[in-house]
């Protein structure tokens, strides 16, 4: 399986290495660095060298390169690397080079627990957190005074049970269960404003702080909307198949319960429209005008609107005025960012002005594109509704909350 | 250098002046260390490094845990940065005994990293691990096993073997899981352990806890994937438990079962292969139509059904594993479920996306229709990376058919205006491919491509030309106008590939194009500035035009050929030389058929992409890099006829929830637990014991005769949970504790010969010991105290007796040596030789034949043994007293000496009428043995047991042909079944009867001698003796 792991920063320095079998020289990373140099934004996930196979992911500006020596399902390694990073994020709330360097001892201890001989051992965050307590200032001070350590001496009970994702003996004074139903609209809109492709991708993130061993069931008003679902291991698949309800003993803390996809047959409501015009004549100044407006929002306001306009390469600079929000143009990446904010229906946000074009470039055929971001609170665009949440197995009455949010996923407009 | 806040803080916390200077040199965080590390140029670097190590040593030697911990943390920091910390090994290894769990873990981590380099020192820590393997805390047991097996020193392989064997029978599933992980480690350390490991793997595969199974299957695939027979027994259980195993185990199991299914079942698609895609559509539209679905083996069906829920996993690797399983072993009509899940993965991270797209691409070749519905999911976004874009393009063209082509073409059209040139070029090629495959749109595509010729982007134009060229070749339509349009482009296009294509096209159709001559003229003019590939096409064009009209083009051709004659590129010179033959001498035979050669109809190129190959198993590393990866085994082909069903029909029971387990628990007493445990053991070893087993059960507890072996699964899970519950939940403890207390006196009675450490043990620990004990007895029906010593590993002494047979020594002339010469003996001389026959008095004695010779002129009387000076443990059986020895005559005497398997000499005083004289009898190591023989299998098995420190290997160059004779001369050994160049001998030491195995392998003149013996000294001495004899 995984022979060694190297962590590389964006400037190409190996700043941490860990080996599970015989030591592999870090010079093996040269193959990776070469790929990084030739195209820093597009490094192949699998690189075959003469003796090693490098499987890598990139997250938070850190490149995680796993070295394998023999045949292994590549997704296994990639997925596992992502799980490692997820765990780091869970522990340190972020996973950047400086955080890893600051916490290298915990990182090392974590990696030792997560892998044995390069094969996954304990990956559930509930178990890991019992084995190695996440560092915080209070505990660090307490440990220096009492001489205790963050490392537990006994095996977490969850590891042996049938529900390894939940630790036992959980106690809260306020028992709460929150569910965020988040839906993302993924779309490609063409030049004329008609929808080429649109789908809704949703997930339910939970924050569960319940004492003891609660057994929850979550049911929906309209479960027929679901087309395709993937579950956290805690969800009982059989009950879903027969009754379309989610029955589960939840992990303690934050986790993603379910990801779903809404039936493509139903027409997706596109909540936003962008009117744009870009006229470029070579040798002259071009003109750009973009207006954003709401569409099919069911009465909610659209917030957090951001536009990312990928301009043609020939554009040198932009000189624009907007009636709302700020804009800036990155002349290297040729991306115009416009942070619009909330859309006021009375006065639609608008940006207009001139763009400078490099002389002699032929640009007429190149079409720019716009990536749009937005959020709409209190709305699940598919119309999905949670019916009720029941709890069994415990006596107390928990506080329950559901929140709906609609966001833009990969929402792209071709200009 | 900056100091991090954390660094100074910890420094204040310690307040030790000793370390202040050191701290100031900056060690606190990784960042600082790094800045030292990358500045080797500064002179202080080595200095400070050295000093720091001194300080670290000091800290490690101190008796304060927090100082040690701090030191270890910094050492781990050094390792993390890839700096050498091996010089600290002696200081670190001492701390392996520490009670502080964090310190211990860091030391373990250090050991795993450096043990390989520091073999000798690492061996010092072994005994600590062996002790830790017996700890009541399962985390420590598991940790010790992990490190012990992680120390890659081949010498300790036998120790690891024992540790794994014990851990595989541990009561904690966590430890058993670790044992499964340790198996591949040991296997990679020492391949010879395979047979023994397979036995353990078999046992672990039979385990019923989901925690263990995934790892057991992993060990199976790493060590013995060819042993399909091991899976028969557990197949049904694996299918049943698949959903409960952890995600990573699921991937391994599904991959393994895919292979298994390929060997055990028949191809479900065999019947509908001919109608291919069509059959798929049918079954999709009429899902209710049962007749269309092929009949599957029920077990085959079970596998597919139990894997199906995993498609809903959040883990991409699991989904991929199941999808490839459906692709490789499922009937075609059922792939649709897998397809949906694969498409879902496309919304994941870019790395996952790319790997999934590669898989989909391969699937689209054979299962086009399945992806039709998801067409729009493969539409390209500007945010995708180039490689993802290209993969999506290939998929789009693969799934194109008459009904969706218009959507695809419209989509492709928008891609042409992208600013990613590679992508644009690929798009145009994709259009070409669509045009090629779907005849209905060929004309549309062609005209579209022609309009692209007037595009301003050169890449677009060039690529279009190339694609049009290919298209025209496949088309019968009159390309005259298109070619004329392209000729006009020759002035503006600079891309060589495009220019070459135009010129080639023109050459092919030169008879219809009147402007061809002008083109050639212009090409001749710019010839020297053209790219090589264009020059070659110009040469081609020249010849083709020459053939069609000799007079008109003669001069022009000569000119071009002269230019190319002096070209820098040898390919062009070469080509010119070849083609010149057609022009220079028209009488040439070749020239006569020139028209046939150059103007014939050329076959159109076929389209195929390299990534479409179905060579490798989907989702494998080999598939993603499109070449065979190390250790890749291709999927076995389907058997024509399915092998007989040997899978067990016993249903596997799983405990679904804890509460259920608890209920069951209450109704079971300790006795039933142990008996069910035993019955499970018996299942592992074979079904034959079943009947006797149940007899025992009924005798031991009458009220539970009904508890059949099914309940064992429940029970076992139960115990594990019981243990953990006791650690955590106090309310439960009392309930379970009662159970244990009941049995406590009984336990004492049973095991009173075992030293009890009861005072410091809780009830739980007692329970633990009892369980461990009963597992160590293996299949033993009743716990008897006679077997005792339950903490020691099971040894198979009793088995040895039958397998090893003592054989008579080989008859060989044995040299006689003088032990007392006649001058020292005042006329009496004594010589001796080893007879190699067992001594009558005791089999552990060496039989010596003494010869007394009287060289005086008088009779010597009363020769006997006087004082004996012997090392402890040795004994001598004296020869019978010789009453008289005549002058010039000799008499024999037989002496037996038990050397106690050592080489200490026996000093004897010989008293006679001449006075007393001392003799010293020194044994040869080869004489301390008794020859035995055994089967080859047993020999190898024993040899594997005696690896590591017990093995001595030497190589000698030896021209001697009769190795056997030489070895017999040197040592009293028996021959075992062996081959010509691979001789095997065996013996037993006389006193302790420990095995001595010698094997001599000849390779040309070199002979490798391997001596395996429990007694290290004896082994190495024997090797030296053998070596000296053979040289």
UniProtKB/TrEMBL annotation, chain A:
PROSITE patterns (UniProt xref): CLAT_ADAPTOR_M_1, CLAT_ADAPTOR_M_2, MHD
SUPFAM superfamilies: Second domain of Mu2 adaptin subunit (ap50) of ap2 adaptor (SSF49447), SNARE-like (SSF64356)
Gene3D superfamilies from the UniProt entry: 3.30.450.60, Mu homology domain, subdomain B (2.60.40.1170)
InterPro entries listed in its UniProt record: Adaptor_comp_med_subunit, AP2_Mu_C_sf, AP_mu_sigma_su, Clathrin_mu, Clathrin_mu_CS, Longin-like_dom_sf, MHD
Pfam families, A to Z: Adap_comp_sub, Clat_adaptor_s
Keywords for the protein's UniProt record, in alphabetical order: Membrane, Protein transport, Transport
Domain of life from the UniProt record: Eukaryota
Major subcellular location class: membrane
Subcellular localization(s) per the UniProt record: Endomembrane system
Domain MHD: 174-414
Protein name per Swiss-Prot or TrEMBL: AP-3 complex subunit mu-1
Family: Belongs to the adaptor complexes medium subunit family.
Annotated CDD domains: AP3_Mu_N (cd14837)
Automatic annotation (TrEMBL), chain B:
Membrane topology, as annotated: Peripheral membrane protein
Compositional bias (Basic and acidic residues): 694-705
InterPro entries per UniProt: AP3_beta, AP3B1/2_C, AP3B_C, AP_beta, ARM-like, ARM-type_fold, Clathrin/coatomer_adapt-like_N
Keywords carried by this UniProt record: Cytoplasmic vesicle, Golgi apparatus, Membrane, Phosphoprotein, Protein transport, Transport
Region (Disordered): 276-298, 669-746
Broad class of where this protein is predominantly found: membrane
Location of this chain's protein in the cell: Cytoplasmic vesicle, Clathrin-coated vesicle membrane; Golgi apparatus
The protein, known as: AP-3 complex subunit beta
